[in-house]
Design brief:
With 127 residues, this protein is of the alpha+beta class. The chain contains 1 helix and 8 strands, in the order H-E-E-E-E-E-E-E-E. The longest helix is centred in the first third of the chain and has 26 residues, at 2-27.
């Protein structure tokens, strides 16, 4: 009987620690969505980045555009920006947003210039 009690006392913390570790690993994942919307008829080159993987570039993007990325706990900050690769019409607009777990955390907007050019300044977010 003493062996059974001893085994129970020794194994219980180990089993609980394994479950907690798995739960902690899953909770450290961060779901992010980058999104660009608006009435801009040109196309964009979009750049998004993080402090671990560096920069990713997506070219000739038409609106609306979105990208979902899952980051682990090593990623401390992220950012996204865009520049027109083809022009639109003067005064058209676009808005860039960062969502974390379906809640918007950062946003920025721009209006096309007199030649239809546009730059959406980078918006950054730190976890």
């Amino acid at each position: 009987m003493k062996k059974l009690v001893f085994t129970f006392i020794v194994l219980t913390p180990s089993l609980l620690a394994c479950k907690k570790k798995d739960a902690d690993q899953n909770s450290s994942l961060r779901k992010v969505r980058y999104e660009i919307t608006g009435n801009f008829t040109g196309k964009f080159d979009v750049v998004y980045s993080d402090n671990i993987s560096g920069t990713t570039r997506v070219t000739n993007v038409a609106l609306p555009w979105s990208k979902e990325v899952t980051y682990d706990s090593r990623v401390l900050s992220i950012g996204v920006g865009a520049q027109a690769s083809t022009t639109g019409v003067p005064s058209q607009t676009a808005t860039i947003k960062i969502y974390r777990d379906e809640s918007m955390v950062k946003t920025g907007s721009a209006t096309a210039g007199s030649l239809g050019e546009m730059v959406l300044p980078t918006v950054a977010y730190s976890f």
